[in-house]
Amino acid sequence: MNARTDISMKSDEVLRVELEVFRREHRDLDEAIDAIAAKGMGDQLTLQRLKKKKLYLKDMIAQIEDRLYPDIIA
Questions:
Q1: Which of 11, 32, 57, 64 could form a disulfide with 26 if both were Cys (CB 3.0 to 4.6 A apart)?
Q2: 8-45 as b/e, with b when 16 or more CB fall inside 10 Å?
Q3: Over pLDDT 90: what percentage of the chain?
Q4: Which residues contact 36 (CB under 8 A, 6 or more apart)?
Q5: What pTM does this model have?
Q6: Any long-range contacts for 40-46 (C-beta under 8 Å, 24+ apart)?
Q7: Quick check: helix, strand or coil at residue 51?
Q8: Chain centre to alpha carbon of residue 33
């Protein structure tokens, strides 16, 4: 089952909770990436994996926001 189908089966309340969790995790990853890059710790592979996870979370946030707040042109 893909993520889009999974989202369509969840209630709005569950999606709001997941949205907040994903946003928090996205912020945490952003801070971790900045800290690792600033200190010169970690290798490029680690940074690449963190950035990939951050992009995945950004996509999930966008999908949930689209479901919760549809763009209706009136």
A1: 57
A2: eeeeeeebeeebeebbeebeebeebbeeeeeeeeeeee
A3: 65
A4: 42, 46, 47, 50
A5: 0.81
A6: none
A7: helix
A8: 14
